Amino acid sequence: MIQTLVIFGASGDLTARFLMPAIARLHQAGKLPQGFRVLGIARDDWNTEGFRSHLEQKLASPGAAGVAGPRQAILGRVDYRRADVTSRDQLTRALGDMTDPLVVYLALPPALFAPSIESLVALKLPKGSKVVLESLSGRILNQRRR
Q1: Into which CATH architecture does domain 4-144 fall?
Q2: I need a surface site. Which of 20, 44, 54, 107 has the fewest CB within 10 A?
Q3: Is the sign of the CA dihedral 137, 59, 41, 11 positive or negative?
Q4: 72 CB contacts (<8 Å, ≥6 apart)?
Q5: Is the overall model pTM greater than 0.85, yes or no?
Q6: Confidence check: pLDDT of 88 > 90
Q7: Is the pLDDT of residue 65 over 80?
Q8: How does DSSP classify residue 16?
């Protein structure tokens, strides 16, 4: 079972307004696996605490209604690493030695999809990993490494 969600472009609006509230609601409904964690990756010069603070402010906003209860539990599962997602070397350092399957969500402008995926392909993600992106039409596209 996949227990790690990696978000490329984690400091952006998509993560704070949509992804993290959805994760909080999944937690509240008991639908996240034990040990589930989120690794945010972006170019902003933040650390984990700064990223958590940013997310906490967003999750406390009126637009994230209904996620107040699980907010702290979710924030405790969040880490942050600074990296350029188009750089294989920086991604290697950011992802470390992950050996279990993970989901990589591209919360990026479409122009960065191809270079980011090329960097991921070079890393040889663990078998069973998935790459997910939101298309311009708002549909979720999902590709599984077989």
Answers
A1: 3-Layer(aba) Sandwich (3.40)
A2: 44
A3: positive
A4: none
A5: yes
A6: yes
A7: no
A8: I
